[in-house]
Amino acid sequence: MVRRHLEDLPTFSLPTGYAVRGFQVGDAATWTRLVQAADLHQAVTADRHREVFGEDLETLRQRQLFLTAPGGEAVGTATAWYGSDGWERDWGRVHWVAIRPDHQGRGLSKPLLQAVLEQLRQLGHRRAYLITETVRWAALRLYLRFGFEPELRRAEDRSVWTDLLRAGLPVALPDCGSGRVR
Ligand SMILES: CC(C)(COP(=O)(O)OP(=O)(O)OC[C@H]1O[C@@H](n2cnc3c(N)ncnc32)[C@H](O)[C@@H]1OP(=O)(O)O)[C@@H](O)C(=O)NCCC(=O)NCCS
Q: What is the pLDDT of residues 169-180, one digit of tens each?
């Protein structure tokens, strides 16, 4: 999915006592715990954080965010990463969004994603992309809410998104009018 600009971001306030902070030393383990708890669709090993994000502290401090609950415990994470695999430098990447299950469904992903997109803009990116999967219904709704659109690159992409639209996802497909499929 893509967001072709980082202007006019929706705003969501954090509930009292919640905050968003940047990566601190030791947070690779925090991240691993959070994504292991949240992500039911893939196994996440202890090495995954290093494999995906490397070990450059300054980069992590700038780009990896944690949502903290009252008391300071991290209950969510998302990363304002950069493009790879042919994406130009303009494109920032929203990477590994996760809210711990006991905090899901309370709207907390929205101020977190807002902070990530603002961070991408601060870091000089002008657009954002992300890669997700059709089983991640809550994530799809979240990204649509933030103005991300389907990126139809391969022939099968349209049929996948059409199925999601038919299943009730409020998505407007390019060249399909406003959310209606005949
Ligand atoms: C995706 C995720 C971060 C959303 O976090 P959350 O704080 O629970 O989501 P919110 O409460 O802010 O809701 C976001 C949207 O998802 C919808 N949603 C939340 N839970 C849902 C569920 N179980 N089923 C369907 N939609 C759901 C909400 O209604 C909202 O959409 P709306 O604004 O159109 O009403 C969280 O579900 C998660 O960590 N999932 C596992 C990891 C994952 O899939 N990450 C995304 C990788 S691309």
A: 999 987 644 443
Strand partners, 66: 21, 77
Record the tokens describing residue 42, joined without a space.
């893939």
Residue-wise pLDDT for 25-59, tens only, equals 999 999 999 999 999 999 999 999 999 999 999 99
Range of the domain at 172: 152-182
| 111 lies in the same domain as 137 | yes
Residues near ligand 1 (Cβ within 6 A): 38-39, 97-99, 104-110, 132, 136-139, 141-142, 145
Do both 37 and 90 map to the same domain? yes
Å from CA of 23 to ligand 1 middle: 23
Closest protein CA for atom 5 of ligand 1: 109
pTM score: 0.94
**Do residues 101 and 170 both lie within one domain?**
no
8 Å CB contact between 23 and 60: yes
Sequence-distant (6+) residues with CB within 8 A of 170 are 141, 144, 179
From 12, 14, 100, 104, the mutation candidate for ligand 1 (largest count of ligand atoms within 8 A of CB) is 104
